[in-house]
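User: Please predict structures.

Assistant: First:
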Amino acid sequence: MPHAKRRYNGGSVAGPFSYQYARPLPSRWLDQSPTLSKKAKLRLAWIEFWTAHGQNVSLTCRHFGIARSTLTRWLSRYDRHDLTTLEDKSTAPRSRRTPTIALSTVDLVLEIRDERPAWSKYKLSVVLERDFGVEVSASSVGRILTRYGRIEAKASARRKRAAVGRNKRMRRPKDLKPTAPGELVQVDTKHLNLPWSAKRYHFEAIDLATRIKVSGVARTASSKSAAEFLIRALERFPFPVLAIQTDNGSEFAHLFQRACEDAQIPHYLSYPRCPKQNAWVERVIRTTQDELYLYHDTPVSIEEHARLLEWFDRDYNEVRPHQSLGYLTPSEYYAKRARALEPSP
């Protein structure tokens, strides 16, 4: 007895495994369907292979490593006029559980939440049972808060300020390779271990192109001290500074950031726990430790300490040969660069 014919998507079937389908669309036509997912394009490739090889299901399944049931399922779904039939269907349940918590309890949870937006779902669950005699699990309270949009109200002002600060952070562009004087200056600070109890912080700024550096000292590592050092450093550099790079220390926020904005200088921040991005200023701080603080007593007066740093800056910039600059001093190297950039008469 011959097999009864069945129909799939309008095509006739002569037997249980002999499918007759409309020829699939060529793959090049997919460019006209930019919303088609990667999985749907793969399924269309199955159907194209199946059509091009005499509708051989076994060969197609072996070639792509898929089950026969998988191929036949997508063959039955396929419609050449609607490629979205090859997309995954939603797996969400058709019927879902409805909340069983009384509306009066929901209103009570929302009322307490609005009065105490910082309380967690666990605290609310305890308060409901203790003060109102309503037993509701913390999970149920959390679902109520989520359903009625009360989760975001919990965020404290401190977390919001931190999020805003993270959004404003600028990273150094990867294509920025400073070659001109002042194109990028790195700034950092170092806590000095002094024989007396008073705290002292060493500030350092170095230009990556010329290696000219400026030092400073302060009693605190606050953003105010960092901003004051930045203003003095901008005055002492013999060229305009075009960009500043620091780590993520608190001294380089707030007033320091405002000083950069007032000077219209972009402030780049390195990635957290990545000191190698500020390698030049880290190295010059080490040089200052080895060549200044190791052989000179730190003055007790901060004014004398500042004068000592000014002397060391002149010695570093104008007397000390620098190996990476061909044993020129930073000032000699900058003067040489300046002469090279002068227009010829």
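Second:
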Amino acid sequence: MAKRGKREDVTVIPSIVVDTDVVSFIFKGDTRGVWYEPHLVGKVAIISFMTRAELNQWALLSHWGRARRERLAQYLRRFVVIHSDDHLCLQWAEVKAQARRNGTPIETADAWIAATALLHGIPLVTHNRSDYAGVEGLQIISESG
């Protein structure tokens, strides 16, 4: 009879998907950022590739200089970026279709962010709860009314 190995304890670190608004609040020192920082403590903070793209666009449209863009890039290293694959693409399509059926269409960028949270079964922290109103099963953490 084969001897079984001793089971080692496994520590699971909770994760959270962070919406673009919350990432930007914290980066720019907006007072609302302090409402959301506690939700990230002790967790793997994840952003969608879409959030990364939106933040890059923000820097370009705002004509940021090289130093500020580099500061943003450095700041974003604290987040794990989830990139698109076939599973995420299907989840995105389901989010878009579901929101439309529920009578509350969702913006394309927000659908990618919601799909990321849903696919991985983790909560989304956002200040814009209403952006995700038509998405069923999405666990939202928000400090907005």
